[in-house]
Every structure is written in C-alpha cells, then in structure tokens.
Design brief:
Elements lengths: L4 E4 L3 H10 L6 E4 L8 H4 L18 H8 L13 H14 L2 H29 L19 H13 L2
Parallel strand pairs: 1-2
Amino acid sequence: MHADVIVLGAGMVGVSVALHLQPRGRDVVLIDRRGAGEETSYGNSGLIQSEGAIPYAFPREFGTILSYAMNRRSDAVYHLAALPRMAPWLFRYWQNAAPERIERSARALAPLMAQCVHEHDALIAEAGGAAGALVQHRGWIRCLRTEERLRQAIADARRLD
C-alpha cells in the first residue's frame, strides 16, 4: 500500500484532516487503534465548539491548588505514588498557565476555533445523506455559580474580540 500521508487518530480532527488532504491530491491512510470517533471525540460528546480558545489553565489560587493537592476534587484525581513522576510535568503546566501565556495561546487559537464550525458544516454537507440530521445547532449554555465567575467569563470572552 502506498500513501503520502498517514493520519493517526480517526476522531473528528483526524477524519477532518484526511478529508482535507484528499482533494489536495494526497493519498491518505487513516489509522486508529479503535473505531472512528471512539476515543477523545466520543468523550467530547460530539461537540463542535468555536468558543473554546482559552486553554484550561493550571489554577493559580492557593485554595484551589490545595484542594487538588489534598485530592478533594472530582475533576482531577491522582495517586500519591505517581506524584514524583508527575511533579516536573505539573511544574511546567503551572509555568505555562501564567496569565500572559494563556492570553498569547488564546489569541493564537481564536481565529482557528472561529473557523471550525464552518469547516465541519462543509464536511457534513459534503457527506450528504443522513449526516446533516445528526447535527443540531443549539448554541452553548454555561452555568456559573457566582456573579464573580460570570464577570470573569464575560471578561475572558471580551479579551478575545
């Protein structure tokens, strides 16, 4: 078998990359250890989102870091025995979560994320058949528990305009 490109992962991103390369004259092989869309894309519940340009940052507040350190969070759980191996990685994650670095990443990602819904709509239309019936444009609802979190979310959104 001959291929110009091997795409690893048959989730939404991998399939989209393969579909974009074929009209450009590339012979593409798509490889995944499971079936198409059965890993990360499955875990994301099939969401196609354009607002997710702000990366998830390592917390900077002492109380939040302490709650993670005490293993009292449901969004991240770790085994104490793994901490020595994880510590260098966690330190780099913390360094890269500095506000100015998050801002730089978000500004770089925003134009790419803004285009993703249009790109997926084009691929869905090209697929034809029942593919269009599988997609619902309903927007995104995010619930916040406090006024402070709401103000922060609004400020984050405005920074990317």
